[in-house]
Amino acid sequence: TNQFGIAVVACPNFARMREDKIELIDLTISHPDYCTTLEQITPEGGGRPVVMTRGAMVKFTALLESGDTPDRLYVQTVTALGLEVDPAAWTNEPGGVLSGRHIPQGLHYVRLAFLPEEGTPQFSDVIEVNAKPGDELEYHAPLKSGIRISGRLGDEVPRPIVAGEVEIIVSTPCPQGDEPLPWFTWQEISPDGSFRFEALPQGTVEITAVGEGYISRQPGEFDGMVLKMEKAASVRVKVKDRDGVAMAKATVFFQTSETPRQRPNAGAGEELKTDDLLRLEPDKRGRPSHRRRRAKFLGWTDVNGTTLVGSLPVGKLKLRVVHPFPEYKTFWKDLELSPGETREVEITL
């Protein structure tokens, strides 16, 4: 904003050129002395004033299982509406204290995490915070070690396992909240098919594994020891323009029918482990250098306009194709794949 408190934000050119219909614009307004404010406006409704408010001061004091105080705490938050409190609002203080400035009015659900470089992570229970402007709230947050999960892939997958990864999302319910607190992590699978997660927060666990040519059944069938697998599907996509010319550098995404919140691996793209995300400074979150090594469920077309995307889950998928040249519209297509199938799809942008 300028000295008059006014900011002018241009509509993205790619949205105009693709003729995408813009119904709502989400605004995030941040100020060091006020609550971060979220607003929704229509494209025609810009220019109306946004009133910023001061929020509550919140302090958590944590203790480890040993009775010692943690030297640093990390925090996950979600409001009753499924929004996150600005990560920059939280500050670590000596004595295992985490304080939050200008926490917006409303119900917030908070989980503290102790993530040592060496040793076992510990977590607090989910704490309900009902913040009001001017409040000064204090909470005690005892920490406890996370749960351990280990297992192996089913014998239907030949050994040694090649390029195998297992992903877990733990959803911890929040009282009166529509959205759970999620915890996402992944690791490589050992050549003998085994995997082990040392410490995860409590909650409902969903697990997905991918190996060379195989993928876990959806939803994951895991009996606490063995994760059932089936042959994965593949799709070879060829992209061209209206003149029949092959289009290189198009990005091809696949998404399952499950929502990304329930299954973070369901959306295409690279994903960051929750613990790595929390360790990042707020202004560094989302940078590509911190993302995972291997992208899931996506590919990029070569000079022949072709890409082969393998290790896809069986069942209903949505295919999305985007080209970096903004004059080309985004393409969507519904697919239903069978185990071991390789589908050929030709697309005109």
Can you give a write-up of this model?
It is a single chain. The protein is mostly beta strands and 349 residues long. It contains 2 helices and 26 strands. It has helices at residues 13-17, 274-279; strands at residues 25-31, 34-41, 56-63, 74-79, 90-93, 97-103, 106-114, 122-123, 127-131, 136-142, 144-145, 147-153, 165-172, 181-188, 194-200, 204-211, 214-216, 226-227, 229-231, 233-240, 251-256, 298-300, 306-312, 315-322, 331-337, 342-348. Strands 4, 7, 8, 9 and 11 form a 5-stranded antiparallel β-sheet that branches. Strands 14-13-16-17-19 form a 5-stranded antiparallel β-sheet, with no helix packed on it. It has a 4-stranded mixed β-sheet with strand order 5-6-3-10, with no helix packed on it. The radius of gyration is 23 Å and the shape is flat. The model is unreliable at 259-270 and 286-293 (pLDDT under 50).
Please supply descriptive tags for the structure shown above.
about 350 residues; 5-stranded antiparallel sheet
* Beta strands, count: 26
Largest sheet: 5 strands, antiparallel
Span between N and C termini?
39 Å
What is the helix tally?
2
Q: How would you state the average pLDDT, rounded?
A: 85
* Low-confidence region ranges: 259-270, 286-293
- Percent range for helical residues? under 10%
Rounded to the nearest angstrom, the radius of gyration is: 23 Å
The structural class is mainly beta
Q: What is the H-and-E element order?
A: HEEEEEEEEEEEEEEEEEEEEEHEEEEE
Shape verdict? flat
Hey, roughly how much beta strand do the residues contain?
35-45%
